[in-house]
Amino acid sequence: MAIIEAQGLGKSFRVADKQPGLGGTLRHFFARRLKDIPAVRDVSFSIEPGEVVGFLGANGAGKTTTLKMLTGLIEPSAGAVEVAGFRPFRRQASFLRTITLVMGQKQQLIWDLPPLDSLRVNAAVYGIPEAEARRRIEELAEMLELGEELRRPVRKLSLGQRMKAELLAALLHRPSVLFLDEPTLGLDVNAQVRVREFLADYNRRTGATVLLTSHYMGDITALCQRVLLIHQGRLFYDGSLQELTQRLAPYREVCCDLAAPYPPEAFAGFGELESLIGQRLRLLVSREQLTATLSRLLSSFPVLDLEVNDPPVEEIIGRLFREGTVG
Amino acid sequence: MGRYLRSLGSFWSSSLAMELEYPLNALIELLSVLGNLAGSVVLLALFYGRGHGLGGWSWDEALVVLGIYTLLDGYTSTLLQPNLGAIVNHVRTGSLDFVLLKPIDSQFWLSARSFSPWGLPGVLAGLALIGLAARRAGASPSLPTLLGTALLLLSSALILYSLWFVLAATSIWFVKVWNATEVLRSTLVAGRFPVSAYPPALRTLFTLVLPVAFLTTVPAEAILGRATPSWVLASLGMALLSLTLSRVLWRHALRYYTSASS
Hints:
The structure holds 2 protein chains of 2 kinds.
Chain A: E1 4-16, H1 21-30, E2 34-47, E3 52-56, H2 63-71, E4 78-83, H3 93-96, E5 99-103, H4 115-125, H5 130-144, H6 159-171, E6 177-181, H7 189-206, E7 209-213, H8 217-223, E8 226-231, E9 234-240, H9 241-248, E10 251-258, E11 272-277, E12 280-286, H10 290-300, E13 303-309, H11 313-323
Parallel strand pairs in A: 3-7, 3-8, 5-6, 6-7
Antiparallel strand pairs in A: 1-2, 1-4, 8-9, 10-12, 10-13, 11-12
Helix pairs in contact in A: 4-6, 5-6
Chain B: H1 2-19, H2 24-49, H3 59-93, H4 96-100, H5 106-112, H6 120-136, H7 143-169, H8 171-174, H9 178-188, H10 200-209, H11 212-223, H12 229-254
Helix pairs in contact in B: 2-3, 3-6, 3-7, 3-11, 7-11, 7-12
């Protein structure tokens, strides 16, 4: 039984169609022209309980809009969506107790007060008895490595500490479906890793379903076995991350350190030259040509060190979005 | 019900904690209440000092109206301004998302989330002025009169709340409605004086369009023993109607909420 089920989901926004300049402004003032912009079109997928799914896409691809339809903040203009057996937009209390939404760029903690005060408010609103709330806060604080920070005003916390406190506040009611919109936005690498580890741990311990969007590929590779790729409002790919890289990138990355400097032209015919900085060479080589190219490379140049990798996922996705099509 | 009461407790205790982070506000607010009150009394005294009356009200009776205005103004600063004034921001920044995803009535959250103690001096000053002036005006209210007055004041509070909430709720469509709520608050200032002091055209406006008459003059009539039960009923009816209207409008408005983009 799927816990999240979207069928032909679509959303279009009515926006003003206004020409630039004074003339355009005047015309717009007297005869307002509106047009419907589709933000999400015909998106279908289904997610099983306990899955951790990454939601990928460029800015404006429709990730956040989809997330808002799944949490019930906005009403779909087409199609149907069901989360934990509920129709999200009705926002029944029992549905809202099942889910949570964490947004990297918006916060629910009270700015001037310690997180504990906001947590008390949440405990009251969700009707969690005080003793129980204390126990849960203790447990989550330990997992998040938060201690005395919970007693300091939010405005005095670092971004990483604040994000962890936000997670605590969002999970106090033990939701079984987590929607995370850029949960590591703006965090430094250490803090990112901590948040990731926590989410993986939480998923393991509670079996909660997690759907997260992120700009940081690291989040996706570390957490998600499965990704949904959305492009220009349409679902573009649904499957494992590994398969996506293979499908989109039928080549591998070859890095070597050379014993002497060479001009870039020297590497013509050895695949696609990615970079040549000093004596460090990076080439993209198609999988079929890999062994042949490697042996030619080793016999033609004084190679000190050699490494063969999958190209970074960022690069593949970035390439995909630049080209606008599947390779 | 218990959950709502406990939530209210946590709302107000956290607001109190937050306000006490900035203690200087208390002093400023106290001074501003006293200053406003003194200004209004002086203005009123100018009318009466020259032998003019205000719409047939005696000096002491007019002070009762001023007392009720001060009371309502204090209530506005304590509850309406901090809560309803924040709605526009919730819409603009998208933090309304968090409110809508809580398993609690969103109108309740938005209307009761904050509590500013700095309006309380106004409430106390208003109550004191009402008591003092009513006694000097020779009113010796019976229990039913006091009860009727309390009901009327309650409906004043509800009408004012609903009106303000409706204006704030329109921010879902227009986003920028600061000016509209400012206009509302300055119209209230008209309630400092008995409604019969105004020319007939304004009197109609203040009774039918903007219910300023219901807010201050009618409760004042009640405490002076001049209101009839039908007035009390009409005012209560008006309060219920506007409250219902605000709820209906809010539910309708939420269908149009698109949430600020990230």
